[in-house]
């Protein structure tokens, strides 16, 4: 039986370490404690919980990701390249070069890690707003 540290389990499950700990304390996943009181999670527990989560996701998802991306209005998605990414606590700041203009996005660190964001990665900036403000020079 392969035992994972909470950090390894979190990376494998695509969640934060805090989520893993909460799952342990809530009894959602089983863990083994070391002599020092540290939790180790059997790999099969992570596989069990992630397969259950992906089964729910598959049931909810009606279309593949490529079709979903294509169905988004062209004026609302801007393809660019990450020129910098900075992690600080729960948040990550990603700066994206879109045709010489820089768009900065603040997202959760968990989301940035789950997406594998790093400098040089090609991404889409999705603009979602109900209003646009204009200021004259």
Structure description:
The chain is of the alpha+beta class and about 140 residues long. About 35% of the residues lie in helices and about 30% in strands. The chain is built from five helices and seven strands, in the order βααββααβββαβ. It has helices at about 5-15, 15-25, 45-60, 65-70, 110-115, and strands spanning about 5, 30-35, 40, 75-90, 90-100, 100-110, 120-125. The strands form two sheets. The protein has a four-stranded antiparallel β-sheet. Helix 1 (about 5-15) crosses helix 2.
Keywords:
single chain, alpha+beta, Multidrug-efflux Transporter Regulator, Chain: A, Domain 2, OB fold (Dihydrolipoamide Acetyltransferase, E2P), 4-stranded antiparallel beta sheet, 3-stranded antiparallel beta sheet, 36% helix, 30% strand
Helix content: 25-40%
* CA-atom Rg in angstroms: 19 Å
Output the number of helix runs.
5
**What is the global morphology?**
elongated
Summarize the main sheet.
4 strands, antiparallel
Q: What is the name of the CATH topology of the largest domain? A: Multidrug-efflux Transporter Regulator, Chain: A, Domain 2
SS elements, strand count:
7
Strand content: 25-35%
Secondary-structure element pattern, one letter each:
EHHEEHHEEEHE
Total domains: 2
Distance between the termini: 65 Å
Mean pLDDT: 82
Level-2 CATH architecture of the largest domain:
Orthogonal Bundle
Mind telling me the CATH class of the largest domain? Answer: Mainly Alpha
* Strands side by side in the biggest sheet: 6-5-4-7
